[in-house]
Design goal:
Length: 384
């Protein structure tokens, strides 16, 4: 079965594809969907399902919009991809949110992944043209407050992948699909401790529930990156000026694990991964050839911290970990954020510490947030 997506992007997206021979890396279509969209989350180890809310909550957990301080705003982020090798591959994300009232909010966003220009040649090496493969999605979300401390949200997403590279016998076409997210966010009331106040944060998001992407008519299609995010955090509110937030997050792809096959293609260990997307979600918890111990290795995890002074300046750091047999990405991140009146600028930097380098290794990520209601009030740096 032809895998157009893996043939074109295997080395670009999944740098782990050439890892250890005993690895069982789970690959999907449109993996760009899971790349962190903003510099704030990227500075804390690429996580955001249970962090405090911001404009980019649309990507991580739209239910957080219920707890956001500002009524509405929009944000923009730019991420150079594989910047150590090329200069024209990029991810661009734009987001808008509106908190309608104390009980409801909505958000919309668009995310674009451009692979730059690719020159094509025939078997003799003669130039035959240039293509510019790209992918994008557009989504919308709605969040509703269900209690004083808990909210849930849903999101719907249209996905378009234009990676047309036909073969001698088959013509590839742009693939399309749609997906749904289900998420929730809990934040406690402030709790008085001996020397400080604090609050707990919990969040979850089941992302990209939807049918497979098909690039060929005679192809069974490739799974969307259906993903489970779980997170927990705590804010140490030292005084009215200083807050330290710590957060832990884990992620698991809800996609079947590739089985071990013999030379004839017969399954030796594991389960058949040629199933529909709904079956694949439930199968993903029990199909690892290595049993329960391998299932546990399919959970990636991140830990991060953020120090904020007067809601005007932030310092961040984080760590991301993935098992060696599931990709082997391991990296630290650092970041900072600055607020001036109605503008917030965030920066982050990633450096790998594992044997395999992340595609974003040594890359500076940038995002900008515009708080519309602060602008209407003439700007504010005061803690609310």
């Amino acid at each position: 079965m032809k895998k157009l997506y893996f043939g074109l992007l295997g080395l670009l997206i999944t740098t782990n594809i050439w890892s250890q021979t005993d690895s069982r890396v789970i690959t999907t279509a449109v993996p760009f969907i899971l790349v962190s969209s903003d510099a704030r989350a990227s500075g804390m180890g690429d996580m955001g399902v249970a962090t405090s809310p911001d404009a980019f909550s649309q990507f991580w957990n739209p239910a957080k919009y219920i707890s956001i301080q500002n009524k509405m705003g929009f944000a923009f982020s730019y991420t150079p991809y594989l910047s150590q090798l090329v200069n024209d591959i990029k991810i661009i994300n734009g987001t808008y949110y509106n908190k309608l009232n104390d009980r409801s909010a909505f958000g919309v966003s668009i995310k674009y992944f451009g692979l730059g220009d690719i020159d094509l040649t025939d078997i003799a090496g003669n130039y035959t043209g240039t293509v510019s493969p790209n992918e994008f999605y557009i989504d919308g979300s709605y969040a509703l407050k269900l209690s004083n401390n808990y909210a849930m949200g849903v999101a719907m997403r249209f996905i378009f992948s234009d990676l047309k590279l036909g073969t001698g016998t088959d013509d590839a076409s742009a693939a399309q699909s749609f997906a749904v997210d289900i998420n929730g966010y809990y934040v406690s009331d402030e709790i008085d401790f001996k020397d400080f106040q604090g609050r707990y944060r919990l969040g979850f998001n089941i992302q990209n529930l939807g049918p497979k992407m098909k690039y060929y008519d005679n192809d069974d299609g490739d799974f969307l990156p259906t993903n489970l995010k779980l997170g927990a955090g705590f804010d140490f509110i030292m005084d009215q000026y200083n807050t330290i937030g710590v957060t832990f997050e884990t992620n698991k792809l809800l996609v079947p694990t590739p089985p071990i096959r013999d030379a004839d293609g017969n399954i030796i260990s594991g389960k058949d991964d040629n199933v529909n997307w709904m079956t694949g979600i439930f199968q993903s918890f029990t199909d690892a050839p290595g049993g329960f111990s391998e299932e546990l290795k399919e959970f990636q995890w991140s830990a991060g911290a953020e120090y904020t002074y007067l809601d005007s300046f932030s310092l961040r750091s984080g760590y991301f970990h993935e098992s060696d047999i599931k990709g082997g990405r391991k990296y630290f991140t650092i970041g900072a954020g600055f607020k001036y009146n109605y503008l917030i600028m965030d920066l982050s930097y990633l450096f790998s510490v594992g044997q395999l380098r992340s595609p974003l290794d040594n890359t500076m990520r940038f995002s900008l947030t515009f708080n519309i209601d602060d602008f209407a009030k003439g700007g504010s740096n005061e803690k609310k």
